[in-house]
Write a structure and sequence with these properties.
The protein has no helices and eleven strands. With about 120 residues, it is mainly beta. The strands form two sheets. Strands 2, 4, 5, 6, 9, 10 and 11 form a seven-stranded mixed β-sheet that branches. The protein is globular and about 40 Å long.
C-alpha cells in the first residue's frame, strides 16, 4: 500500500518562501514520477510541477515557473517543492501524487494548506 504524506505548509507573507515535503512509503519511489498539484478555494485542481525518476522536471509555466523548484531525494523517498516569491494567488491546498508510468497519477497525499497573506 503506497502512502504519501505532505508537510511544510503554513501561513506566509507575500514574497516569502516555504518548502513542502512529501514522504512516500510502500512503493518503489525511485521509479515514480512525482507531481505537485494545488486546489485553490472555488477552483479546480491545478498542476504545479512534476519530476521524473530521472530527475527531469516540468512546471506550470504560467503560474509558477521561475519561483518554484521541484526536487527529489530517492534515498529518503521524498519529493520537495521549494516555493519562493509567494503570492496571495498561490494560496491553496497542495497535494503530491505519484505515478508509475504515463497517464493518470495512481496515488495521492492528503494535502497541506498554504496560505499567503498580502
Amino acid at each position: 500500500q503506497v502512502q504519501l504524506v505532505e508537510s511544510g505548509g503554513g501561513l506566509v507573507q507575500a514574497g516569502g518562501s516555504l518548502k513542502l515535503s512529501c514522504a512516500v512509503s510502500g512503493g518503489t519511489f525511485s521509479a515514480y514520477t512525482m507531481g505537485w498539484f494545488r486546489r485553490a478555494p472555488g477552483k479546480e485542481r491545478e498542476f504545479v510541477a512534476r519530476i521524473r525518476w530521472s530527475g527531469g522536471s516540468t512546471y506550470n509555466e504560467d503560474s509558477v515557473k521561475g519561483r518554484f523548484t521541484i526536487s527529489r531525494d530517492n534515498a529518503k523517498n521524498t519529493v520537495y517543492l521549494q516555493m519562493n516569491s509567494l503570492k496571495p494567488e498561490d494560496t491553496a491546498v497542495y497535494y503530491c501524487a505519484a505515478r508509475s508510468g504515463y497517464g493518470a497519477y495512481d496515488h495521492w497525499g492528503q494535502g497541506t494548506q498554504v496560505t499567503v497573506s498580502s
